[in-house]
């Protein structure tokens, strides 16, 4: 590494690149155990749709029949995921969040859906969703109540796992409200993982274990990875730039702890994509899409597929960006450098390719130029001796071959991102 840097410095001086070079030795963090939850699922980050951010706990089907949490809502979303190209690009899991339950368990202690809002029941809904070539996700809570106050799974882990398997559910989001202690929380998450396994049905297990653990102690990600397919670390995403920005800040400030925990079978979950809603500008939507790809995040949209702009739809269905998110190598990206209100993130990909995202975090003024030294990307090897660079966002453009010693100048809108793909050749191998 040292010899490389010295050689580079002398060559770069000739070129007059202005950037300071900083090879970050710290990008090589500890590698925890590679063991992931052994259910064969989530080999790439889960993709789908989750109701929470957009529809929350709306139970008033009298006043708002089109946006209350009901089987009708999920059937309509299933129809659209099938007919409008979502399924084709990989969005597969249609997920129910909190507020689907009846207030009480049935006489045998089983959870039941609200009879007014889900008159046909969850099994029927699962069948419908499966008939569209999709999978169904459901929600429950490790504690005594769900966050919205519906029956919790504490004391009922086995019976709830069996109920979900029996209904044909394919994913469980397991929340962490109303637990008495961190021990109870950890035991509960483990218990449910084993209970799901015992059912024999393949069910993606989405946890919030670290999120609820952090206030008390640093979570053991090696352990969490053995039990969960993905895990939420930070609070709920809101439909705002402030929220997306704070999730990115949390992720970069904790990257030494969390990045190496991600890999096929287990992922850090920065929460839903809010693209296509009300709160993010176009540039901010690009930033969320680009950075969720860099972070190898589950891509769970929370929006209204019945009312979504063509522009937002094209961004969410961008196959090049999805290919980065779903890259089979399964290594999460990280913040490489922060300077002058710019952030540079990068992610290693299969076929020796790299994804690079440059974010302009300055919220005053217009587009700003940022010049990057090619040699500083991809741990010094991405473009050695040269690479082919394609801009994927905001606009797909082939930028051409760049030598190791060259520089690349970009212009980035305020709160926007330029997402680049650095390949060994012009024909970067894409996912089918
Ligand atoms: C349950 O766990 C075993 C061993 O850990 C694994 O081989 C099996 O595939 C799992 N089954 C399911 C349904 O996840
Ligand atoms: C974290 O969990 C793993 C697997 O259960 C265990 O081997 C390791 O000792 C734990 N680390 C700490 C610091 O407790």
Automatic annotation (TrEMBL):
Residues 330-416 form the Alpha galactosidase A C-terminal domain. Its EC number is 3.2.1.-. It comes from the Eukaryota. Coiled coil: none annotated. PROSITE patterns: ALPHA_GALACTOSIDASE. PANTHER family: ALPHA-GALACTOSIDASE A, ALPHA-GALACTOSIDASE/ALPHA-N-ACETYLGALACTOSAMINIDASE. This is Alpha-galactosidase.
């Amino acid at each position: 590494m040292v010899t490389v840097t010295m050689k580079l410095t002398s060559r770069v001086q000739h070129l007059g690149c202005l950037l300071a070079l900083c090879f970050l030795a710290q990008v090589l963090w500890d590698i925890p155990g590679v063991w992931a939850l052994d259910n064969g699922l989530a080999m790439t980050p889960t993709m789908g749709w989750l109701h929470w951010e957009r529809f929350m706990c709306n139970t008033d089907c009298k006043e708002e029949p089109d946006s209350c949490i009901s089987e009708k809502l999920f059937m309509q979303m299933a129809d659209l995921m099938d007919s409008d190209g979502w399924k084709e690009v990989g969005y597969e899991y249609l997920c129910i969040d909190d507020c689907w339950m009846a207030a009480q368990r049935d006489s045998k202690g089983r959870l039941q859906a609200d009879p007014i809002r889900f008159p046909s029941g969850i099994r029927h809904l699962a069948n419908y969703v499966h008939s569209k070539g999709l999978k169904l996700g459901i929600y429950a809570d490790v504690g005594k109540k769900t966050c919205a106050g519906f029956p919790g799974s504490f004391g009922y882990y086995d019976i709830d796992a069996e109920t979900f398997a029996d209904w044909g559910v394919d994913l469980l989001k397991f929340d962490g409200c109303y637990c008495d202690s961190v021990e109870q929380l950890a035991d509960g998450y483990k218990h449910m993982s084993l209970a799901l396994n015992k059912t024999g049905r393949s069910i993606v297990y989405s946890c919030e274990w670290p999120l609820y653990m952090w206030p008390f102690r640093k979570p053991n990600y090696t352990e969490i990875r053995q039990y969960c397919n993905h895990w939420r670390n930070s609070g709920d995403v809101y439909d705002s730039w402030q929220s997306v920005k704070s999730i990115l800040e949390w992720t970069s400030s904790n990257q030494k702890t969390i990045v190496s925990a991600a890999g096929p079978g287990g992922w850090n979950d920065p929460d839903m994509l809010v693209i296509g809603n009300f709160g993010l500008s176009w540039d901010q939507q690009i930033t969320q899409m680009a950075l969720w790809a860099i972070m190898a995040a589950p891509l769970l949209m929370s929006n209204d597929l019945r009312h979504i702009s063509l522009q937002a739809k094209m961004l969410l269905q961008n196959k090049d960006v999805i290919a980065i998110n779903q890259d089979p190598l399964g290594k999460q990206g990280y913040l490489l450098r922060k300077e002058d209100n710019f952030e540079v993130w990068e992610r290693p990909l299969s076929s020796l390719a790299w994804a690079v995202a440059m974010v302009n975090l300055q919220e005053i003024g217009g587009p700003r130029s940022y010049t990057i030294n090619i040699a500083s990307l991809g741990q010094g090897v991405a473009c050695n001796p040269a690479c082919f660079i394609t801009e994927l966002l905001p606009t797909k453009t082939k930028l051409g071959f760049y030598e190791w010693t060259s520089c690349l100048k970009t212009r980035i809108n305020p709160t926007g991102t330029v997402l680049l793909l650095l390949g060994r050749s012009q024909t970067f191998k894409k996912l089918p």
